[in-house]
UniProtKB/TrEMBL annotation, chain A:
Record-given protein name: Protein translocase subunit SecD
An example molecular function term from Gene Ontology annotations: protein-transporting ATPase activity
GO cellular component labels: plasma membrane
Example GO BP: protein transport by the Sec complex
Annotated Pfam families: Sec_GG, SecD-TM1, SecD_1st, SecD_SecF_C, SecDF_P1_head
Membrane topology: Multi-pass membrane protein
Gene behind the chain: secD
Reported function: Part of the Sec protein translocase complex. Interacts with the SecYEG preprotein conducting channel. SecDF uses the proton motive force (PMF) to complete protein translocation after the ATP-dependent function of SecA.
Subunit and interaction comment: Forms a complex with SecF. Part of the essential Sec protein translocation apparatus which comprises SecA, SecYEG and auxiliary proteins SecDF-YajC and YidC.
Residue stretches making up the Protein translocase subunit SecDF P1 domain: 229-288
Sequence similarity: Belongs to the SecD/SecF family. SecD subfamily.
From TrEMBL, chain B:
Source organism of the structure: Methylophilus rhizosphaerae
UniProt xrefs under Pfam families: Sec_GG (PF07549), SecD_SecF_C (PF02355)
Signal peptide limits: none
A single BP term in Gene Ontology: intracellular protein transmembrane transport
Protein encoded by which gene: secF
Function: Part of the Sec protein translocase complex. Interacts with the SecYEG preprotein conducting channel. SecDF uses the proton motive force (PMF) to complete protein translocation after the ATP-dependent function of SecA.
Transmembrane segments: 12-35, 133-153, 160-182, 188-209, 240-258, 264-290
Protein name as it appears in the record: Protein-export membrane protein SecF
Amino acid sequence: MNRYPLWKYVLIGTVFIIGLLYTIPNFFGESPAVQISPAKTSLKVDQGLLQKVEDALKLADIPVDGMFLDPNGVKVRLASTDIQLLAKDKLVSALGKDYTVALNLVPQTPNWLQSIGAKPMYLGLDLRGGVHFLLQVDMKAALDKAAESTVGDFRMSLRKEKINYYGIERQGQVVVVKFESEAEATKARNLLAKNFSDLTYKISGSDKDFNLTASMSVMAQKRIQEFALKQNLQTLHNRINELGVAEPIVQQQGLDRIVVQLPGVQDTAKAKEILGRTATLEIRMVDEEKSDMATLQKAQAGQVPFGDELYFDREGRPVLVKKSVVLTGDRITDAGPGVNGQNGSSVVNVTLDGRGAGIFKNVTRENVGKRMAILLIEKNSTEVVTAPVINEEIGGGRVQISGMANAQEATDISLLLRAGALAAPMEIIEERTVGPSMGEENIKRGVHSTLWGFAAIAVMMIIYYMVFGGVSVMALGVNLLLLVAILSMLQATLTLPGLAAIALALGMAIDANVLINERIREELRNGNTPQASIHAGYDRAFDTILDSNVTTLIAGLALFMFGTGPIKGFAVVHVLGILTSMFSAVLVSRAIVNLLYGYRRKIEKLRIG
Amino acid sequence: MELFRIKKDIPFMSYGRLTTSISLVTFILAVFFLLHRGLHYGVDFTGGTVMEVHYPTTANIQKIREVLDGTGLKDITVQNFGSSQDVLIRLPVKKDMSIAQLSEKISGALKASDSGAEVRRVESVGSQVGEELYENGALALLLVCSGIMAYLAMRFEWRFAVAAIIANMHDVIIILGFFAFFQWEFNLTVLAAILAVLGYSVNESVVVFDRVRENFKKMRKASAVHVIDNAITRTMSRTIITHLMTQTMVCSMLFFGGETLHNFSLALTIGILFGIYSSVLVACPIAMWLGVSRANLIGDAEKKPKDEATLAP
């Protein structure tokens, strides 16, 4: 009766071997590496980049331990941290600023293990060191800004239709237009409602004082907020790319928050500065009279003509741009890739707000045939994003920028136009920094707690329950192995509370084995045969084990749902630990006991203490 | 080896009045300290900044205080942390300064006065984040309680569910009472520990209840009191051994886990110790007083007439 069918042994064996395979990578440690990733989304990660990196390193005579491509870029494994620094310097000068070169660590997992996807556990910031920021996006500011641009739009439309009003202002997020007669107000409402349909309008007042109030619908507010968040995310992505952090995380959290995690970053001041930086977009005219080769060459040598500035476009071509600014980026309300209806080429569609559209119309009318430069200005660098030729007067605030090489470039440029600046101000509301030495110490603490606790439990169990105690310890070992394997497979973030949860999971999982062992003893005491006692012990204990694990599971799930950051890490491990303990304490320990006793004809005595 | 070979059932239920009054007294004391002293919340909840700074030699607390006073920031506390070379600096949220600027200012001042100062950990939390934690913490507690009650009510009976939850909430209050009395810092990991204990010590009640149910099936003639006494006695060995094992692991965390896991393990220790007591000596008497009996536990499958089911304690 204490024999398992073959398939059960095979199942347990298979699970054990898989567990072992996925646990092993955690023991290989990590070696220094450099990671090369494109700074712009238009640049591809491909064999060409790999070749480029290889050539650059060969040229500099840097010994390479290994090199591979992954979706984020090229990783080069190096022998020591000295070589790592040297390689970084050489690569930065060889590849230029199109690529970011970051110091990183890559696991030394053998290739055959990597090929089955076995990786070491993913360590959280408290274990590897780094900075964590939680940023709050000021949604009120985003809405205010939207209302502010509505004021401009209204003014333009009313003036164009020659509707008389004597005042227009923003009150909070509501736009109020003042009229002298109700007839004018009604006329205005009809016009505005047609042009700006996502606002709700109301006329109030009497005598010679009529107010037309326009407020944003809930849908429109939601759209503006979503847009602001998306744009801020994109901007942060772009900026962090410049920081050269190996595996940054930029994620939305909730409706109005962004989490930024920068592993390995120590210089928090720099990180904060970059996150808080404001980039702006400017549209200026290209100085066509002075754009001949000779002047350009002179300008590059330092003789920039008066009233002009020299910038470079994304291909590195010099462009002379007038100093006076036509438009700034906050007049752009949206930008997206599109296709030209006539020739099918890729374009970028830019939407300007009311005031921007007016200025743009005038400027384009006066400068047909000339080039207009779109500049992205950040603290200490200015780049010409694109400099298209003006084909005709452009009114209505919808601008099509042609001259894109392909759809990808159109997408990138629209992103840049949108993401160059923040849509709404952000504030850091949570900061957690952990130094690298602290991280290592935390790992040591967590691992020591687990191992010493495990050892103590093992000794006590074997003394108290002898052979059955030994079986329980083996099952507990399998539990630890499976837990680490699953965490490695899922690549769930392991934090110090997570390590504590591993320890706690083991401390709690032993309960199942204690229950079983006590039950077997009791059955023996009641005068049952050894085989019958084993059978009854496992059988009867199972219900209890199930019930008690379900209650623990409920607590774990609640923690997972409401916890954030480190607590979520604790909850994940806690829940997984309960699941693996069910498997190991019941199935694995039973299998071992079956193998030990199940095939004996006659057992004098069970060695259970 | 076998430590608990008990021949006769221990009449736990006859001590019911005594054990529940002990619980009641500790419970009232815990509530008193909670109300009187309140919890010493960590920055996770209150908002503010904590910085851990490491010095190559013994840190001069007095000098650090002077340096920090020089920044013009108020309400800064400086204390040793772990070793004489480590210092913990705390400061509350400032209205006119973002938390990002605050931590930069402090670390700048410290590095300027002593270049060996190494900021090893910074935790800055804005006040709005802290407020949400209260809410989420309370919600999680509520969810755990109702989830466990629903499960126990389904698997056993509502009387058991109520008894188990009262016993375990009593544990939670007592843990909080300890934290209030000793003014230990109550942070997120402690909250996690409390919720984990809640799930864990319900196990305790489940094991006993399971045995009670089994006994009701086997011991047909016995009274409810007898059945419960027997169930507790039979499971006592397991209860003590299991808790000993779990506590061993927790002690290991207490010794090796460092400061971060210190309060976490403390909360677990109190939870485990009181968990044993309450799940046996509080949950069972309550279940009994609520009138748990063979009929309402085993149900109609046993075809027992209803009126036989009234067994007074």
